[in-house]
Amino acid sequence: MQVTETLNSGLKRELKVVVPAKDMEARLTQRLDDAKGKVNLKGFRPGKVPAQHLRRVYGKSFMAEVVNEILADTQSILTDRGEKPAIQPEISMTEDEKEAEKVLSGDADFEFSMSYEVIPPIELKSFSDIKITRQVYDVTDEEVEEQVKRVADSARTYEVKKGKAADGDKVKLDYLGKIDGEAFDGGAAEDSEVVIGMNQFIAGFEEQLVGLKAGDETTIKVSFPEEYAAAHLAGKEAEFDIKVKEVSKPNELEINDETAKQLGLESADKLREIVRGQLENQFGQVTRQKAKRQILDALDEAYKFEAPSKLVEAEFENIWNQVTRDLEAAGRTFEDEETTEEEAREEYQRLAERRVRLGLVLSEIGEKAEVKVGDEEMQRALIESIRRYPPHQQQEIYEFYRQNPQAMANIRAPLFEEKVIDHLLGEIAVTDEKVSRDELMADDEDEADAKPAKKEKAAPKKKAAPKKAAAKKKEEGE
C-alpha cells in the first residue's frame, strides 16, 4: 500500500492511497484458498473445485470484499501517521464503471483518496494557575420549614364554608375563556378547583375570585403574557365566564407525624430530612454549575487553537436547529429577541467554536488523567434517558441505543465531562465563599429550578428567550 499526502493545510489533510494490483491479487488468492474447502458447487466434491473455476464464480465478489476490507481499515493508515481524525474521513474513488471493473478483475491498482481534519495536538498546562471562587449557600431551618409546608399542603384538608371567598380559600368553579367573544381551545373546564394565592392561573385571575360565593356568576378579564407559550394567545386580552359552585376554607395545617404519614413517610422528622436534602441538592447544583462555568472560562482563556471546522459546523447546526425550533414554538422572531438572524448566526458560530474547542481540551485532560466511565454508570444513564419516553416506546429506544455506538457516545459524553470537572476541582485552587441565597442565584436564569415547583393549569411559566437559553447551555453543557 502506497500512501501519498496530497494536502496539508492547517488541520486539513488529504491522502492518495494506492494498493497495487499484485497486492490485491494476493489478498484475493488468500480468500479463494480459504473458500476452497468450504464451498459446495454442483458437479464438484468438497475441496476439489479447480482454482480457476472458483475464481470465475467468486472472483469479483471476493475482490469486492477485499476492497471493502481495505476501506474499513483506513484507521490503520491514520494510526501509522500518528494522527487522530476529528470525524470519519471522507473516501473518494473512481465512479467510472470500466475502471472499477478492472479493479474487481484484478487488472488495475485500487486507488482512492481520503480527506479529513486532524485533532490538533493539545499540550496541557499546569492547572495550579486556575483559581475559582465557589459560592456556597447553607440552607436555613426557615427555608426547610417553608418548603415542608408547601409539600405538606397537598395533605391539607378543606371545609366547605358559607360566604365569600378569601385569600387561601379553595374555589370550585366552571369557567369558559373567550377572546373577542370566541371560545378558545384549552380555555374551558368544569369543577376546576383553584386555591386563591397559589398562582396556578394567569396573573390577575385568582385575585378576582376574592369576594365571590357559591352560586355567583361573573366575568373575569385578564391578559395573557406577551411571551405566553401558546403563540395564538400571547398578549391577548381574554374574558372568562365564571360560575362558582363551592367555596371551602383551609383547615389548620399541622406538621406532625400524621401529616407525614399521609405523604407516605414515617415521621415529620423524616419529611424535614428529605426536604432539606432536596434543597441542598438544588442549591448545590447551582453552586457546581457556577464553579464549572468559571473553570470553562479559564480553560477558554488558556487554550486558543484552531478547532476542526467539520466539528464546529456540526455543533453549530445542533445549536441553530434548537434555537429556531424554540423561536417557532414561542411564535417569536429574531427581532423579538432584539437581534437579527445574521447577528445570531455570528454569535452561535462563536459559541459552537468554543464548545468544540473546550470539548477537545476536556477530552485531552480526561485521557491524561485516565478518567473512565464505568458500565454501571452508563447503564444507569441509559435507563434514565429511556424513562423520558412513553412506556410503550422504551424497549424500542433501548434497542436503538444498544445498536447505535454514536447514540451511546452521546450518553457517555456528559458523564465523562462531569468526571473531568471533578478531577479539575481537585487540581485547581478553589476558595469557598459563603453567600446568601440571592447572591447565589444572581444572574442565574434557572432560579426557578431552585424553588418549589407549582402546578400550572392555565398559564405555563414564561420560557427563557431562545438567545438566552442557548447562552445558558454554553455555560452548563459545553
UniProtKB/TrEMBL annotation:
It is found in: Cytoplasm. One of its GO terms (cellular component) is cytoplasm. It holds the Pfam family FKBP_C. It catalyses: [protein]-peptidylproline (omega=180) = [protein]-peptidylproline (omega=0). Its EC number is 5.2.1.8. Residues 432-478 are annotated as: Disordered. GO terms for biological process: 'de novo' cotranslational protein folding; cell division; protein transport; protein unfolding. InterPro entries: PPIase_dom_sf, PPIase_FKBP_dom, Trig_fac, Trigger_fac_C, Trigger_fac_C_sf, Trigger_fac_ribosome-bd_bac, Trigger_fac_ribosome-bd_sf, Trigger_fact/SurA_dom_sf. GO terms for molecular function: peptidyl-prolyl cis-trans isomerase activity; protein folding chaperone; ribosome binding. It is an enzyme of class 5 (isomerase). Residues 460-471 have a biased composition (Basic residues). Residues 168-250 form the PPIase FKBP-type domain. Residues 449-459 have a biased composition (Basic and acidic residues). Keywords: Cell cycle, Cell division, Chaperone, Coiled coil, Cytoplasm, Isomerase, Rotamase. Residues 327-354 form a coiled coil. Belongs to the FKBP-type PPIase family. Tig subfamily. Involved in protein export. Acts as a chaperone by maintaining the newly synthesized protein in an open conformation. Functions as a peptidyl-prolyl cis-trans isomerase. PANTHER family: TRIGGER FACTOR CHAPERONE AND PEPTIDYL-PROLYL CIS/TRANS ISOMERASE, TRIGGER FACTOR-LIKE PROTEIN TIG, CHLOROPLASTIC. NCBIfam families: tig. Consists of 3 domains; the N-terminus binds the ribosome, the middle domain has PPIase activity, while the C-terminus has intrinsic chaperone activity on its own. This is Trigger factor. The gene is tig.
